[in-house]
Known about the structure:
116 residues; mainly beta; seven-stranded mixed β-sheet; four-stranded antiparallel β-sheet; 52% strand; globular
Amino acid sequence: QVQLVESGGGLVQPGGSLRLSCAAAGFTFSSYTMSWYRQAPGKERELVAAIASGAGSTNYADSVKGRFTISRDNAKNTVYLQMNSLKPEDTAVYYCRAVTTWYNYWGQGTQVTVSS
Length: 116
């Protein structure tokens, strides 16, 4: 059974940091492009960062470049999102996604709230 389980969300003050994790099971993790999306209240879901299979090239939304870092550990079937210098506008539910040409899986999401 395919599973993507996010963790690491919570409440943090502006300028703080959080590290999100997404543990995968039920598919060949190393063959999938892994990405993080987020959805704020009243807004559409948007891509935050992605990391390819193989060489693991990365790309980021302009709004998070220089602040967020996506990485993956294929031995642990886990993808991470290190979030630094968090801003109130980063508040959203963060979702993990696994994609290949034929398959597309989503996690249930983890809430990140940036507030003083």
